[in-house]
Amino acid sequence: MATTLEPTLDVSPLVVGGREFRSRLLVGTGKYKSNAEMIHAIEASGAEVVTVAVRRVDLNRASEEGILHHLDPEQFFLLANTAGCYNAEDAIRYARLARAAGFNEWVKLEVIGDTETLLPDTAGLLEATRVLAGEGFKVMAYTNDDLITALRLEDAGAVAVMPLASPIGSGLGMLNPYAIRTIKSRLKVPVIVDAGVGTASDACIVMEQGVDGILMNTGIAAASDPLRMATAMRMAVEAGRLAYLAGRMPRRETAVPSSPIAGMLGS
Amino acid sequence: MIQPPHAGEMITLMVNGAPRELAPHSTVAGLLGSLGIDPRLVVVEHNRLILRDRECYATRPLSDGDVVEIVHFVGGG
C-alpha cells in the first residue's frame, strides 16, 4: 500500500522548459561495466532523462557501437551533454552536433574550467548559454553553487540551473546546503543538483533542501552493485522530496518528551 | 568514358582526425557506406558545417583536403 501511494503524494511532476518529466531523478550513462548493467540500472532508477555524450565514432573498431544500439530513444529522454569542453566555442559546437542527431533541442551544458576539479568556467558557461538559448536550445546549465552565477544563467535563458553538490565524480555529497537552498529560493527556473552525490543519504539530503531534482551518474555506476544503488537512489529522491513537502519539525537543542507527563503512577 | 581512378587521382580527407583516401567524386553517403556506418546513428560535420539534413548525404560531394567529423552518442554523465 505504502509503496504504491508514495509517488502519488508528490502531486507535482518535474517541469523543465515547459515539459513534464516522470521522475525527479536524472541519470548519466557513463562508466558502467557493461551496456546490460547500464540499462538495468537506469530502469531501476526510474529516470526518464538520461544524459549522453557526443564523441567521434571510432573508425578503427567497426564493431564499437554507439549508445543508441542499447538505449531506446522512445523509452528515455536523451539529454546530450557537452562534457569535455573547455571553452564556450567547443561547447556550442558539441550542442549543435547533438541537436543534429534529431532527438531534441535540449543540452546539458558544461564548460569546464579546470582538469583537476572539473569546476565550471562560469564566464564561458554564461556566454554559451546566451548563444544556445538564442538558437532555441533548452539549456540546462551545469554550474557551481554560486548564487550570482545561477541568477545570471537564468537571465541568459537557461531552462534549468544545475549547481553541483560537490565535484563531478567525487561522491562527497552536498558540501554547502546553505548555498543550494539560497539558489533554490532565488531562482524561478528549476534547480537540479548535478554531480557529487555518492550514496542514497546524499540524494535524500539534497532533495530535502527543496530542489527540483538531481542528476547523477558515478554514484550509481561506480557502486559495487549499480542495480541496487539505482533502486536506493530512486527511493531516496522520492523520500527526500516527500520529506521536503511534509516540512520537517523544528530543530531544538533540548529534549521534549513524546509521551504524556501526566498520568504517571504515584503522582 | 569513365576511367578507373589511378592512385594519383585519389583524394585525401581528414576523417575523425586521420587521413583517409577516397575515390574522386565520393559523397558523404559513400564515405559512410565504405565505413559501414548507419547514417541514422551519427551526425556528420563537413568542413565545420554540421549536416543537419541527412537527405543531403547522397549528393554532398567530398573534395581533396576536406575535413569530416563523424560523431555519435556514447555513455556520459
Concise overview:
Chain A has 9 helices and 10 strands. Chain A is of the alpha/beta class. Chain A has a single domain (15-246), classed as TIM Barrel (Alpha-Beta Barrel).
CATH architecture of chain B: Roll
CATH C-level class of chain B: Alpha Beta
CATH fold naming of chain B: Ubiquitin-like (UB roll)
Low-confidence stretches of chain B: none
Average pLDDT level of chain B: 90
The CATH superfamily label of chain A reads: Aldolase class I
- What value does the average pLDDT of chain A take? 93
Strands in their spatial order, largest beta sheet of chain B: 2-1-5-3-4
Largest beta-sheet details of chain B:
5 strands, mixed
> Would you tell me the structural class of the helices and strands of chain B?
mainly beta
- End-to-end span of chain A in angstroms? 43 Å
Which CATH C-level class of chain A is it?
Alpha Beta
Q: What general form of chain B does the structure show?
A: globular
pLDDT < 50 stretches of chain A: none
Strand order of the largest sheet of chain A: 8-7-6-5-4-3-10-9
Whole-number total of structural domains of chain B: 1
Shape of chain A: globular
